[in-house]
Amino acid sequence: MGLKKANALAGEVSPYLLQHAHNPVVWMPWGPPVWEKAKAANKPVFLSIGYSTCHWCHVMERESFENEKTAELLNRDFIPVKVDREERPDVDRVYMTAVQAMTGQGGWPLSVWLTPEGKPFFGGTYFPPHGAYGRPGFPEVLQQIASAWRERKGEVESWAEKLSAQIRAVGESSVGPGEIRDAQKILQTATEELAAEYDRKHGGFGGAPKFPRPSQPLFLLRRSYAERSEKLLEIVRHTGRAMASGGIYDQVGDGFHRYAVDAGWAVPHFEKMLYDNGQLMAFYAELGTATGELWPGQVVAGIDRYLQRDMRMEGGGLASAEDADSEGVEGKFYVWKLTEVRALASEEEWQTAQRFWEMSEEGNFMDPHHPERGWNVLARKRIPSKEEEVWLGSLRSKLACERGKRTRPGRDDKILCAWNALAISGYARAARWGGAVAYAKSAREIWAFVEKEMTRTDGTLIHRWRLGKKDEVQLLEDYASMVQALVDLHQATLETSCLHRAIQLSEILLEKFEDRGGGGLWATADRSLLARMKDDYDGAEPSGNATAALALAELGRLTDDKRWTEAAGRVLDWLGERLRRLPQAVPHALIALERFHEAPARLVLVGPWPGEELEVLRKVAGTVYRPDVLMTRADGSHPSEFVRSLAAQAKKATAFLCEGNLCRKPVFRPDDLIREFKKPA
């Protein structure tokens, strides 16, 4: 059997695009040649957007894009185009907005039909190969659209123009009612509304499917401190415990899967994403300090093991994601039959596993495309005792060894700037709150990779790196997330160079993305798109606007530079209407709002660095939960004149707890620092 003929995607870098390089569909990558060809041929463009670890993208490829007859229809009547949403989230955002406007829902694979000018006129997500339940099959849809283009082209173009105008209006939405003056009311209302959505039985918020969405519990965790509320802390604690105990957490290989299909966190959608694990590492680190319990730190350690073992690339950057499927079957790498576990376990291990893990002969998971009963996703029934943990640890090692013989899911090994920034923040905050030097080292290594491989000579960032190949896309999410990462890294390492680089990136961020006329920040610097969008929804990843608002607010507090504080305020003003009307949609923006309006508390450390005495004070500061306090170190190169002035006021390791430019008496001993931290703010 000869090799399949390659299409134009064969020259691309994205693993997702390369997966489609030998489809019989004559795919083209996104770019000017698409529109030139479409106009010359007078054909609509069929735009298919997905990503390499997307389960339903794989299904549609097998069913439709690898089918010769379906490919013939696509090639004859359309210009087929493939986009990796992770490479071009700005393109995805435009056409996802269009599909949501047309259908009321979205998702991937995203399927959109466009005029030769790029204006959408029909769309959906996954289309089955054959019609069922009143829905047409994909070939039938293709034929109907081709017929409409030939026979009613004017109507199609008119509708496309109207829809495009709607999308531009969404993208160009202007500032809300002006300065936020009711911040405390917004925060209080948001706290009450989020707490009302808490699932008392299973933890988390709302029903199935359940997404981790780390900004949500993190906001309530910080509100639990602000309100001194044990009730809020228990909501967050229960949610964190439930996620870590469920099948959404890989009980054998560590790390979090994408989401749970059920309300109880038991059965996951199996893909693993770097952005989830980076954010959850930060959340659990902070939760551990807030509760004083050890188990959140164990979750942090598990995420670290997963990232270092399975996601770390040569040079220190982290890969993007791992697939849900292996050997074409969803979850096959992760699930267990009862007989498999029994064969590997000693008698004590087996008895413990039966008491502790959800397992049955019938199983709790089945891939609908490959129905086979008896597959179990391991989830905890309860917390193990110390003795049980010994037996479970032994059995987990055996299961991990056995799993190592299986075919691994595919890994998307492209390195994305924003997602690596989330991992830097995760590691840095684990060092800040847990005190582990190893986590700070990991954060430094990822940043060193970004600085070496993903930074241009003019200081601008590269969005995607793979096998030495870099792109030219300029996205808000990269700059906002990296400014936050550097602010977090500074607090973990006390290295002033992090602040100076954060300042440089903040200058570029505002220059490239701020809409000074309409308010808010554009998601992309690309002006050739149908519309430039501004994102304000905090989903699995926080929006670029919310991330920027928090990062700029914290940079302003650490440096005493009003440029950044005022910029954060402008972004929050633009977000104001959403913060008031639908706070559940913007939990990360709520975190930024709270940071912006709380008392400007800083812990300023002074003394020889690196030095053992100062390191002890840094670690001790992470043992008391004070999320309102940012940490910095005074030296002669610090951007803040006030902080620099403190450097001359101490001859040995000293801590100053300051609010604005007013500081309490200097502290030299760890016990005294703990007492100072526990005094009311």
Written account of the structure:
With 681 residues, this protein is an alpha+beta fold. Helices cover 50% and strands 9% of the residues. Strands 1-3-2-4-5 form a 5-stranded mixed beta sheet, with helices on both faces. A 4-stranded mixed beta sheet has the order 17-16-18-19, sandwiched between helices. Strands 8-9-12 form a 3-stranded antiparallel beta sheet.
Comma- or semicolon-separated keywords:
681 residues, Glycosyltransferase, five-stranded mixed sheet, alpha+beta, four-stranded mixed sheet, single chain
List the helices and strands and how they pair.
Elements (H helix, E strand, L loop, with lengths): L14 H5 L8 E2 L2 H10 L3 E6 L4 H11 L2 H10 L1 E6 L4 H15 L6 E5 L5 E5 L13 H14 L1 H19 L11 H14 L18 H12 L3 H16 L13 E2 L7 E2 L2 E2 H18 L3 H17 L9 E2 L2 E2 L2 E2 L7 H7 L2 H10 L29 H18 L7 E2 L2 E2 H18 L2 H17 L10 E3 L2 E2 L5 H18 L2 H18 L30 H16 L2 H20 L5 H11 L3 E6 L5 H10 L7 E5 L7 H7 L6 E6 L2 E2 L6 H9 L3
Parallel strand pairs: 1-3, 2-3, 16-17
Antiparallel strand pairs: 2-4, 4-5, 6-7, 8-9, 9-12, 10-11, 13-14, 14-15, 16-18, 18-19
Helix pairs in contact: 4-6, 5-7, 8-22, 9-10, 9-11, 9-22, 10-11, 11-12, 11-16, 14-15, 16-17, 16-18, 17-18, 18-19, 18-20, 19-20, 20-21, 20-22, 21-22, 23-25
Please sum up the structure shown.
By secondary structure, the protein is of the alpha+beta class. The protein is 50% helix and 9% strand.
Estimate the mean pLDDT confidence. 94
Main beta sheet strand tally, sense and closure: 5 strands, mixed
Helix content: 40-55%
Termini, distance in Å? 74 Å
Number of helices: 25
Principal-axis shape equals globular
Q: Determine the oligomeric state from the structure.
A: single chain
Per DSSP E runs of 2 or more residues, the count of β-strands stands at: 19
Order of the strands making up the biggest sheet: 1-3-2-4-5
CATH fold title of the largest domain: Glycosyltransferase
Highest-level CATH class of the largest domain: Mainly Alpha
Structural class, by secondary structure, is alpha+beta
Question: What's the domain count?
Answer: 4
Radius of gyration: 26 Å
State the CATH architecture of the largest domain: Alpha/alpha barrel
